[in-house]
Amino acid sequence: MQPNLFAVHIMHADPIMTVGMHAVLSGNPGLRVSTQLGQPEAQSVARVLITDYDAGIALARQPAGKSAVAGPPPGVLVVTQFDKEWEVRLAMDAGVSGYLLQSCAPDELSHAVGLLARGQRYLSESMTRSVADSLTREALTGRETDVLELLAQGCCNKSIARKLGIGVGTVKTHVKGVMSKLDATARTHAVVVATQRGLIRPGGGASAGA
Questions:
Q1: How far apart are CA 65 and CA 74, in angstroms?
Q2: 199: which residues sit within 8 A by CB, 6+ positions away?
Q3: Are 182 and 210 in contact (CB under 8 A)?
Q4: How far apart are CA 122 and CA 65, in angstroms?
Q5: Distance between CA 6 and CA 46 in Å, rounded?
Q6: N or C: which end of the chain has fewer CB within 10 A?
Q7: CA distance readout (Å), 207 to 40, 84, 85, 200
Q8: Closest Cα partner for 80 from 91, 72, 93, 70?
């Protein structure tokens, strides 16, 4: 392999995405691009690993192992349709180096790969705004999240109190806290806002990253 080429290995779960990204990146003279299906052994020499969401988090959490090339461990670039703020933060906190939406332009993909190959990080502009916005908001407490989940299921204060083993007055305090932190004007509004932000899934239930 020529020393001036950066090795990029695509191990995305979506075969169509894999073919598309390979076609885009193979046109870059500074990259040597391989895929998991065609050359699984190439992962060991890659500077950048392009993955789907779940695989990216799993790889980023793995302890650094022995690499066939000198230098830092490869950067993990997640390319996904997941755009909720908690999903992005979960991936970045796990240690992924880059995060792109599947709807990104080919030039942005090439730019992100180039940065990761040089040891830098990349987060798409829209995701940067989302994460930055989330950091400026006061986070819900664990108990407020429990109450929010039950609100999404249509539970009244008495029902929430019974399910959580707390007093109705305490429930009301938590509901006020939820509404204040979500800047909601009503209980149903709080559920809508939480769903839009990915704090709970549509239909009720707190998300894993909430």
A1: 11
A2: 86, 140, 145, 148, 206, 207, 210
A3: no
A4: 23
A5: 8
A6: N
A7: 33, 10, 11, 5
A8: 91
